[in-house]
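User: Here's a structure from my thesis project, written as structure tokens. My advisor, Dr. K., wants to see whether a designed sequence matches the one we expressed. Can you design one independently, without my sequence as a hint?
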């Protein structure tokens, strides 16, 4: 079965075509800076030693990007299939499913309406996810589309973890609660970690740490999510590239009273101008490390804050779980930034976490472990693969 996975962001579109007979990736790529003056497109044919084809071009919208990717998949030079009819199903990443969805589901008008109804809970993501779904339906009108939700893995959180200490009717009437995000990634990491530890999923306790431009952590008990760092929206938790993470809930009201910002502008500040960028003006960790090397005090501070907050959540989730088999780092930062891993795990020996600095600096093929030989808790780097997990969920839907 061939499954095309679509992950549409506000200005990007990622895709991978899987042959689920062996779970192999046939081709994939990413469109970036959609709608801007100059975009970028990277397309990879994985069977040809992961040879990349990168073009810089104007990408007007997601519709154009989808047309380009379909043509690339069937092109004589860049293609891996003869025609688009060879694609059996499409899997769509959807960030926010609210309480409406606890598993992958076949997309129809009712499902799209429910996703749209949750737009307010993920304003940067759900509308873009819906665009990807709509364009795919135009191009693949006869093929089933399956929605896979970031929030699904977190549906096992108990009320004590997902409720806020607000009047209870705000939950019953407005569904104000913690939902969590990156669930597809956390689920994948839990499954892969269990396998690497030689355990079954239902016997492992893990802290999974997804660090990219967006960051989240998850306390996994016996394979199920029991708590997570993100909240009702993807704004909560650890500070991120451009998002605040946890702040005093009174801060937004204070800023509205003492500045000339309106609600929309304030939301933009919290989501796109805060986090690492808010502290030092940069949101790419590579740029921040370069600035730090040049004695930029704000860059130093941003990194200290970032690692401190990760460490704080490790401690909190260790308390939630009671015992931990492993901590798992993933995402672009989690996989590639040994400095962040080192500082986030510093002085955690009392929690059973002791890393080996040499292993942490390893450039070996991932996944790899970087705990010391005597560490009671293992530490792993496992590459994120949300797309494969989405394809697995789609395949499961048809089995």
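Assistant: Designed independently from the structure alone:
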């Amino acid at each position: 079965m061939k499954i095309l996975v679509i992950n549409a962001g506000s200005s990007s579109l990622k895709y991978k075509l899987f042959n689920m007979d062996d779970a192999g990736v046939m081709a994939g790529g990413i469109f970036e800076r959609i709608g801007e003056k100059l975009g970028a497109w990277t397309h990879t044919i994985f069977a040809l030693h992961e040879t990349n084809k990168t073009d810089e071009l104007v990408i007007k919208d997601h519709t154009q990007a989808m047309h380009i990717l379909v043509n690339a998949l069937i092109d004589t030079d860049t293609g891996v299939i003869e025609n688009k009819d060879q694609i059996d199903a499409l899997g769509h990443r959807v960030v926010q499913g609210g309480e409406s969805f606890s598993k992958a589901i076949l997309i129809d008008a009712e499902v799209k309406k429910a996703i749209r109804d949750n737009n307010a809970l993920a304003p940067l993501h759900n509308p873009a996810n819906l665009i990807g779904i709509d364009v795919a339906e135009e191009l693949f009108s006869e093929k089933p589309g399956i929605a896979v939700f970031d929030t699904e893995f977190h549906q096992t959180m108990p009320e004590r973890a997902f409720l806020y200490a607000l009047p209870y009717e705000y939950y019953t009437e407005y569904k104000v609660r913690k939902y969590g995000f990156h669930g597809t990634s956390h689920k994948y990491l839990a499954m892969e970690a269990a396998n690497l530890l030689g355990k079954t999923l239902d016997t492992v306790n893990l802290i999974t740490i997804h660090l990219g431009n967006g960051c989240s952590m998850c306390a996994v008990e016996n394979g199920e999510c029991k708590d997570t760092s993100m909240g009702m929206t993807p704004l909560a938790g650890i500070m991120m590239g451009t998002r605040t993470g946890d702040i005093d809930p009174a801060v937004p009201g204070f800023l509205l009273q003492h500045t000339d910002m309106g609600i929309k502008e304030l939301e933009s500040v919290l989501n796109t101008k805060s986090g690492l960028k808010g502290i030092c003006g940069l949101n790419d960790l590579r740029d921040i490390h370069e600035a730090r090397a040049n004695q930029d005090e704000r860059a130093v501070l941003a990194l200290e804050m970032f690692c401190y907050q990760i460490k704080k959540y490790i401690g909190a989730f260790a308390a939630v779980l009671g015992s931990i088999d492993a901590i798992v780092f993933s995402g672009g930062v989690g996989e590639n930034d040994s400095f962040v891993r080192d500082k986030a795990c510093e002085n955690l020996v009392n929690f059973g976490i002791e890393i080996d600095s040499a292993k942490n600096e390893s450039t070996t093929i991932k996944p790899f472990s970087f705990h010391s030989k005597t560490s009671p808790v293992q530490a792993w780097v496992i590459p994120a693969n949300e797309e494969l997990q989405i394809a697995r969920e789609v395949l499961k839907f048809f089995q």
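When you compare it with your expressed construct, this may help: Residues 91 and 390 are 6 Å apart (CA to CA).
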